[in-house]
Amino acid sequence: SLPVSIVLITGTILFVLYSRVTRHSLADDIRSGIENEEFFLVYQPVICAEDGKAKGVEALVRWQHPQMGLVRPDLFIPIAEEGKLIVPLTNYIFERALKDFADMKVEPGFRIAFNVAPEHFTQDDIESKFIHLRDSLERIGVKPLIEITERQLLTPDICQCIESLRQLGILVAIDDFGTGQTTLSLLQTMPLDYLKIDKCFIDTIGQDSVTSHVLDTIIELSHKMNYVVVAEGVETQEQADYLTSRQVHFLQGYLFAKPMKLADLKLWLVEHFKH
Ligand code: C2E
Ligand code: CA
Ligand code: CA
Ligand code: CA
């Protein structure tokens, strides 16, 4: 009826206006947040399934917003991507990690994994920027790993860029594997180094469901294609045992450690390598 549609239409218009306004101001906030160093990194250890030791960490960004408090990346990363702010934000994240790890003693071969949005690769002189990152990390005894989310990997330009990263000796992981649409064709056309299986597949372990067979298939395929396989979102010992028995190389999840602030990570690493 007429009144109902008027209410619906008005509601929609108000919602669109509201989200325009908030998105606009959030993008502005991101810009000033980078300048004011409101962003920081938390680090989640990545565990070798075979010996149980941490072989690196994944850097995950957090935002301490002056009014809103702690904001999750799920909320602001899409806005940063839309507002062309993901490039300065990612560059800031690289610099932040370099500072964080500058005086840290790590095991040889220790890796920091960074999440990098595809837009990042559209910058000019992207190669020299990655050479800078690689060399700066090398000076402090750390190697980078670049994680790229699969559903966004597709354009030929980005593929070429990723290939040149690998030529620079930087390893590239396909992130959230299994959640995109082009999974198999991508594996064929574009060889990468690491494959991170999305948490939603890890959750199926112990359930006799179709998706638990999908998990087995992904692991088998990864081995055949010589990928280093990482499982994310490992929460139970049952999951860890299952994945280890299937020769998954690395495990990451709350079972081992949550993402930690730098000071906590330092304590955690000391404690972890004592044994
Ligand atoms: P992701 O790359 O898939 O990161 C894994 C997410 O799972 C992280 O959420 C992590 O805190 C969470 N997680 C890890 N282990 C467990 C577990 O055992 N159980 C559960 N329930 N969750 C677990 P977070 O930190 O909120 O990040 C969300 C997403 O935001 C990331 O997903 C990534 O896509 C994006 N993101 C985070 N940091 C960055 C960044 O620096 N740059 C970019 N471009 N994206 C980022
Ligand atoms: Ca990731
Ligand atoms: Ca992931
Ligand atoms: Ca995920």
Q: Average pLDDT value? A: 90
Report the sheet-strand fraction.
Answer: 15-25%
Query: What bound compounds does this protein have?
Result: ligand C2E, calcium ion
Sheet of most strands: 8 strands, mixed, barrel
Strand line-up across the major sheet: 1-2-4-5-6-7-8-9
How many whole angstroms does the radius of gyration measure? 20 Å
Structural class estimated from helices and strands: alpha/beta
The total of beta strands comes to 9
- Amino-to-carboxy terminus distance: 71 Å
Order of helices and strands: HEEEHHEHEHEHEHHEHEH
- Low-pLDDT runs of 5+ residues are none
Shape: globular
Q: What is the helix content? A: 40-55%
Counting H and I runs of at least 4 residues, what is the number of helices?
A: 10
Catalytic activity: 3',3'-c-di-GMP + H2O = 5'-phosphoguanylyl(3'->5')guanosine + H(+)
Subcellular location: Cell membrane
EC number: 3.1.4.52
Transmembrane segments: 1-18
Reconstruct the topology from this structure.
Elements: H1 2-35, E1 39-48, E2 54-65, E3 69-71, H2 73-82, H3 86-101, E4 111-115, H4 126-139, E5 143-149, H5 156-167, E6 171-177, H6 183-189, E7 194-197, H7 199-202, H8 210-224, E8 228-231, H9 237-245, E9 250-251, H10 262-274
Parallel strand pairs: 2-4, 4-5, 5-6, 6-7, 7-8, 8-9
Antiparallel strand pairs: 1-2, 1-9, 2-3
One calcium ion is lined by residues 175-176, 196, 232.
